[in-house]
Amino acid sequence: MFCKMVSGEIPVTRLYDDADCMAFADIHPQAPVHVLVIPKEHLQSTAHAEASHGPLLGKLMAAAAVVAKGQGLSGGYRLVVNTGDDGGQTVGHLHVHVLGGRHMGWPPG
Ligand code: 5GP
C-alpha cells in the first residue's frame, strides 16, 4: 500500500524525499513526532531483505536520522522496524518509524 505513496496515487506530504527513500507523517501518531521512512523499492519487510539490500537499508537508516534532525529531535528518538505478525507489522512495505518528542519507555509493550 505504501507503493501508492511512492507513485503519488495516495498523496502525502513528503517530509523527506530522495532517489531511494521518502518519509511522511504516520496517520495515527503514537508520539508528538511520528514519521514513517520507506524505501521507494517495494520490500515487504526486513525478513525479506537479502544481502543485496544492504545499501538500501543503510540509506533508510541514514534518511531516518535526517528526518529526526529535521524534526528537531535533538534530545533523542526511537527508530522502530516492526517485522511480521508477531512483530506487530500491519503494512507489508518495509518502513522505519521515527518516534520522538516525548520520553520513550523501555521495554516497549
Ligand atoms: P506497522 O504496524 O506496520 O509497523 O506500521 C504501519 C503504520 O502505518 C501504522 O503506524 C499506521 O498508523 C500507518 N499507516 C497505515 N495506513 C496509513 C496511511 O494510509 N497513511 C499514513 N500516513 N500512515 C498509515
TrEMBL record:
InterPro entries: Histidine_triad_CS, Histidine_triad_HIT, HIT-like, HIT-like_sf
UniProt-listed Gene3D superfamilies: HIT-like
Organism superkingdom: Bacteria
Motif stretch (Histidine triad motif): 93-97
Domain HIT span(s) in chain numbering: 1-109
Chain segments annotated as coiled-coil in the UniProt record: none
Active-site residues per Swiss-Prot or TrEMBL entry: 95 (tele-amp-histidine intermediate)
CDD domains per record: PKCI_related (cd01276)
Entry-linked PROSITE patterns: HIT_1, HIT_2
GO molecular function: catalytic activity
Pfam families in alphabetical order: HIT
PANTHER family: HISTIDINE TRIAD HIT PROTEIN
Protein name from the UniProt record: Histidine triad (HIT) protein
